[in-house]
Prior knowledge:
The protein is an all-alpha fold. It contains 13 helices and no strands. One zinc ion binds next to helix 8 and helix 9.
Amino acid sequence: MTNREIILDxxxxxxxxxxxxxxFLHGDIMEPGIRSRLREYWGLCPRHAWGHAVxxxxxxxxxxxxxHGHQPFDVGVLHDALLSQMAGALAGRHHTSTRVLxxxxxxxxxxxxxxxxxxxxxxxxxxxxxAAEANRMIYTRRWLAETKPVWELVTCPTxxxxxxxxxxxxxxxxxxxxxxxxxxxxxxLAGLDRRLRLxxxxxxxxxxxxxxxxxxxxxxxxxxxxxxxxxLALSSDDSNRINP
Length: 244
Ligand SMILES: [Zn+2]
Ligand SMILES: [Zn+2]
């Protein structure tokens, strides 16, 4: 088993993974060919979907809005696109099929890591120090703790081992989907997308301030596509353990 098949938890990411995610944040994501691969695969694999959020939140220090950085802006932009695509696909369904929920292709970051490509440079940064900083997950833990009162109401019962909540994409796919649950999921995702846009907007120069519901939207969005293991592991992790 390689590292990238392991669910992300408080142990964090490898230096190579953080390099690949850093390069992804710095431009790969903007390329049309890569954007369409991300849409077909519904984002990145669970480990790298959450890794993308960790690397952006921990390492991106400058930004607009009340928080001035350490915020999931690129993650929000990507998931806004995925949510509107998925909500539209589910709203247009009159028959029962799980096809729309399935991933096509592979994880772009896994492919970068496995393709024998040159390790990505950090342009003058000390990659080990940068990785150690990201893996402390100080700001990510803070985001998860602050927003938990909102997102804990909609965690996936299968991911979380609870009796109530809302199935994530993977577990909805396993449970099979009828027309009513497709429509209900589409409505939820469309509402989630509106909250996420408010959050993304709050991180821009002229954006209005965010709300607790909007703050939690990026966690719900990443978790719906990639599963809840990471936020559940990190928030049950004894208080705020800091990696050495
Ligand atoms: Zn991956
Ligand atoms: Zn689940």
